[in-house]
Structure formats: structure tokens, C-alpha cells
Amino acid sequence: xxxxxxxxxxxxxxxxxxxxxxxxxxxxxxxxxxxxxxxxxxxxxxxxxxxxxxxxxxxxxxxxxxxxxxxxxxxxxxxxxxxxxxxxxxxxxxxxxxxxxxxxxxxxxxxxxxxxxxxxxxxxxxxxxxxxxxxxxxxxxxxxxxxxxxxxxxxxxxxxxxxxxxxxxxxxxxxxxxxxxxxxxxxxxxxxxxxxxxxxxxxxxxxxxxxxxxxxxxxxx
Length: 221
Hints:
Elements: E1 13-16, H1 22-39, E2 42-48, H2 57-64, E3 72-78, E4 83-88, H3 99-102, H4 109-119, H5 123-130, H6 138-141, H7 149-171, H8 181-215
Helix pairs in contact: 1-7, 4-5
């Protein structure tokens, strides 16, 4: 298929129909270039409105990746489809990073537990949910934002991009001067604290309701 009406950005922020943030573009390209210079792997970020003309985001990625000759990892975000995916030009590239961890919907073990409790339909699926955490993209995208939706997308995609880059670099036994480092970790920590706060508040409210019901049994009989 021919890709039309897509803003070509740079070599590493390869397509950008959504963010249009100069500072974000500079950060992605700087980190991407350093990763490529040190590992020979190109990590390209694609942010589009929708994968129109394709049934799935995977079909879109498989078509897009034909444009590249170098070993390439695509991190793709489709805003209106609300899909995020990671696709590599060769299966051997997946050994350098943990795709499942990056794309996990849970940032922490506590969040994974909450998802397991509400979604599991068997012991097997419960433990599968329980072990699926460490996500650096979806938990941030899933946060409700009254304003600054684009800022939320930028933070989530940069977190995910940096996470993949740092894992690839570590697997290749090199260090990145432009890695997200503590900034990225603090962002995820803030997300975990927020989620723990929500869980703690829900537990307190539940306990209060139980105590109230016990004290006012007559009202509920």
C-alpha cells in the first residue's frame, strides 16, 4: 500500500500525525541516533491518527517496515484506534528487549493484582495477569486527563521508547548518554504512587461501608 497524507518527521520519529512537539522530536531523534550508532539497531517511533486501510495495527507495521533495510524496531501508536504495538524487522531482535513487559497494561505488581482480580476467569489466567507488569506505555495512556492529552501521549511514548532503547543497549553491553534514566523511573514511580493511592482509598471506603452496615443492621434487613 502507498502511505498518503502522513507527515514525515525524522529518521527515528519516523511518522508523526499526533504529537507535533519539537522538543519531543529532538529527544527521540537524539536517543535513537545514539542507540543506532552504538548497536546498529534503529528504533523508530510512529504516531499516526489511525491505521486506515488496514485491518490491524500489525498489518500496518508489516507494510511499513518494508521501507527499511537496517535492523529496525517499530514502536507504533494509533491515536483514534487506541492501539500501541512493537514490531521488529527480524525475530532475532526481540531477544534484546522484553516486548511483553513494555506493553503490559500494569505498571506495578499491585496494579497487576487488581487487573487479575477483575479479569481472570481461571487460576491459570489469574497467575498470568499477576505476572504481567512493568508496563511503561499503556498505564500512562490509560490515565484520565482533563487537559493535556497530547502531553500524556508524549510522556507515555517517550517512556516506552526509552525503555526499549535502554534494554537493547544493556543487551548489547553499551551505555546511552541520552537515556531517560531517573526521569523515566520517577515518572513510573509517580504513576505507581497514584495507583496505590486509589487502591488504598477504595479499601478504606470498603471498610467504612462494612463497619457502617454492622452498626446499622436494622436498616439493611
